[in-house]
Amino acid sequence: MFGRLGWAEILVIVVLLVILFGHNKIPTMMRNLANGINVFKSELKNKSDKDEKSSEVAPKTVKKPVKKAKKSVTVSKSKNKIKK
To answer: What H or E segment, with its residue span, contains residue 13?
Structure first.
């Protein structure tokens, strides 16, 4: 699909981008996009490194106390209303 774009179509797309976003904002958007891609790649790399480290060490389990509900809630079968 993209192989069919000629120089005229690409020129129209570039002109529309400049009209919509302005010539000052396009480099900033591309820089932010590149930074986002780099951060994403580094996070993926850090995650895979972290997974390798965590497979070597057994994870610690911490038991947290369960809080009980203050009010009991019952559902009436005939009317399907919640009573408190």
So the answer is: helix 7-21
